[in-house]
Amino acid sequence: MDNAANAQPPIPAFREPPQSLLSSLRFLGPGFILSASIVGSGELIMTTTLGAKAGFVLLWVILLGCLAKVAVQLEYGRYCISHGRPSFQAWNSSPGFKLLGVHWTMIVTLFFLIATFAGQAGVLGGSAQVAAYVFPTIPLWVWIIAIAITLSLLVFHGQYGPVEFVAAALNFIFISTILYCVASIQTTPYAFSLADLGQGLSFRLPAGTMPFAVAAFGITGVASGEICMYPYWCIEKGYAAWTGPRDGSPEWTRRAKGWIRVMNVDAAASLIVYTLATCAFYILGASVLRNQPKLADGNEFVLQLSSIFTEVLGPGARGVFMLGAFTVLFSTIFANTAGFSRLWTDMFAVCGLFNVEDRKSRLLSIFVMAWIFPAVCGLIYLTVQKLLILIVFMGIINSLFLLVVAWQGIVFRYYYTYEELKPSRAYDIALWVSILSIAFMAWRAFMAIFQ
């Protein structure tokens, strides 16, 4: 196993994987964190906005955004279990030219990580908008500071267990809230039919919706940042350490296949959660917001979105919406604060700022970035105060960066996959469908920037 696993908290090694689906459920966890990160700004803001602008006709874009990138995520999970390396350390050791002493992908990644501050600023700002509505006597900027400090306190320790627990709890709250609202639509004038859903699977793209469709694809489902984060959560959960270093023995192959199977179950569970939530938000936007006045960007944006709940459940339901909205947005910025603290830490290690085998240095870096990340996001939002623009920008950046992520997925599959872990042809077909979908939407994202 590569030395990245040595930088993780000590986990019992050589653990036999569970054999049944039911017993595998006990070892899920990375997907909970991923779902908490995914179901947030993209769903509450980008997806509902897309539904409001296009109606049901772009439901296929939402489904594509959720389904098309999973195979690449699985390839990253397979790599980290068999090699024990997180994403950026793996990228830096890949074949290809180097610039300033690091692999060329790391230069691109640096720009992506910097751009991420802007996108997550929109998420933090949305959380503060909700809090400011519930407690209007407290200014927005105070809520920005309070939420930023809370985020830092939740993740600065660098431990995996608390992050998984909080993420799982937030998953339960926002899924329950949004599915309840969708079910309630059917008893109102906004009820939707199977014909409406069928219209959303017609694969049409109305004029003027391309920038939003591209952003929605990039930010819904597993975005580029979440794919890069997933190996970190898999390693910290213990999948790689439980597999142990490759020694060519049948026992290692059995363990590796077993923990990869558990990882697949974990990814499938998170796929179900975020696909249900994403489609539910889109349906709410298409059925309710489609008939509302045009959404105006700014500090009242989330309040306008609350009409989703008030129109469906009545004026008294605004509190239900605010609970759901805050949970969704806070879960995203929470999981991303934890995740990007690790991505930045990995970047620092790749650049030689500390030895990756030094666990104390790694935890110190996570500690520092856990305070810097939300603080910078808060400052950006207070400067711009345009939540929707920040979210759309992040969606387009995600679509573009997915090209690099997908390319490295190809490298993992065809350069680093051990013969004994070679996947099936069906898996390879799914991987290439995923990669081609990413390439197409990245090209559309590039075109949208220059239109």
Helicity range = over 70%
Give the SSE order as H and E letters: HHHHHHEEHHHHHHHHHHHHHH
Class computed from helices, strands and strand pairing: mainly alpha
Please report the number of helical segments.
20
Look at the structure and give the mean pLDDT. 84
Task: Give an overview in words.
It is a single chain. The protein is mainly alpha-helical. It contains 20 helices and 2 strands.
Summarize the structure.
This protein is an all-alpha fold and 451 residues long.
Describe the SSE topology.
Layout lengths: L20 H4 L5 H9 L2 H14 L4 H9 L2 H14 L3 H6 L5 E2 L2 E2 H31 L5 H16 L4 H26 L8 H6 L10 H10 L4 H14 L1 H5 L6 H38 L13 H5 L1 H7 L4 H33 L8 H26 L2 H29 L9 H25 L2
Antiparallel strand pairs: 1-2
Keywords:
451 residues; mainly alpha; two-stranded antiparallel sheet; 2 strands; globular; disordered N terminus
